[in-house]
């Protein structure tokens, strides 16, 4: 079974046997999706997993674009993933309940918290991982569709002012003078 995890490709039957890093640095969701799709197509991967909070600054658009580029179905925000043969059963939360979908391979799935439980590796696993090769792939040529113009932090929040319960005049003054500025 060949699977892609958010830009890092892993060929695995039990754990990570192979890792591939795409040597790109882009702020454009489409460019990132094209890179992942190119490697997934070339490697014949069956499943592409992306995170809920993806490489596109949490825009959650990469998974859908990769699915389109590799001509595969896309299911978003999975909370549970089960695979039997070539059929995946995916559970995701919807308003008022859960939705369970079955889909054949290949497919792209964006995962929410809880799909994969993180485990702290033991020393043997850490040492074994050091010997595994990391294949670095050069990016395919693609023109970015968007450009990040500016990043800006939101304005700092003002501190909280406590007013004694018996000081109604001060509360009224603060509401008239300072609450209007917000």
Give a written overview of the molecule.
This protein is α/β, with parallel strands linked by helices. The chain has a single domain (2-149), classed as Rossmann fold (3-Layer(aba) Sandwich), CATH 3.40.50.620. 24% of the residues lie in helices and 29% in strands. Strands 7-6-5-8-4-1-2-3-9 form a nine-stranded mixed beta sheet, covered by helices on one side. α1 crosses α2. The longest helix is centred in the N-terminal third of the chain and has 15 residues, at 29-43. The chain is elongated, with a radius of gyration of 23 Å. The N and C termini lie far apart (55 Å).
Name some characteristics of this structure.
alpha/beta; Rossmann fold; nine-stranded mixed sheet; 9 strands; 24% helix; 29% strand
How is this structure best summarized?
This protein has four helices and nine strands, in the order βββαβαββββαβα. With about 180 residues, it is α/β, with parallel strands linked by helices. Strands 7-6-5-8-4-1-2-3-9 form a nine-stranded mixed beta sheet, with helices on one face.
Per-chain topology:
Elements: E1 2-5, E2 8-11, E3 19-22, H1 29-43, E4 47-51, H2 62-70, E5 74-84, E6 87-94, E7 97-104, E8 107-111, H3 123-131, E9 134-137, H4 168-177
Task: Give the tally of β-strands.
Answer: 9
- Which overall shape is indicated by the principal axes computed on the Cα atoms? elongated
Strand order of the largest sheet: 7-6-5-8-4-1-2-3-9
Q: CATH superfamily assignment? A: HUPs
Percent strand: 25-35%
Provide the number of structural domains: 1
Q: Strand count, sense and closure of the main sheet?
A: 9 strands, mixed
Distance between the termini: 55 Å
Please identify the top-level CATH class.
Alpha Beta
Q: DSSP helix count?
A: 4
**Poorly predicted runs:** 4-14
Classify the secondary structure makeup into a structural class: alpha/beta
- Average of the residue pLDDT scores: 83
């Amino acid at each position: 079974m060949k699977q892609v995890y958010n830009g890092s490709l892993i060929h695995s039957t039990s754990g990570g046997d192979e890792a591939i890093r795409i040597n790109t640095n882009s702020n454009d969701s489409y460019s990132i999706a094209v890179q992942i799709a190119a490697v997934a197509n070339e490697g014949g991967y069956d499943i592409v997993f992306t995170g809920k909070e993806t490489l596109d600054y949490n825009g959650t658009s990469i998974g859908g674009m990769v699915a389109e580029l590799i001509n595969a179905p896309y299911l978003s925000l999975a909370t549970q993933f089960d695979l039997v043969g070539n059929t995946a059963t995916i559970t995701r939360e919807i308003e008022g309940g859960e939705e369970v979908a079955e889909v054949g391979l290949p497919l792209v799935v964006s995962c929410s918290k809880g799909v994969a439980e993180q485990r702290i590796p033991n020393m043997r696993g850490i040492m074994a991982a050091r010997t595994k090769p990391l294949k670095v792939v050069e990016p395919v040529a693609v023109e970015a569709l968007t450009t990040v113009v500016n990043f800006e932090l939101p304005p700092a929040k003002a501190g909280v002012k406590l007013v004694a319960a018996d000081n109604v005049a001060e509360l009224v003054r603060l509401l008239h003078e300072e609450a209007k500025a917000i």
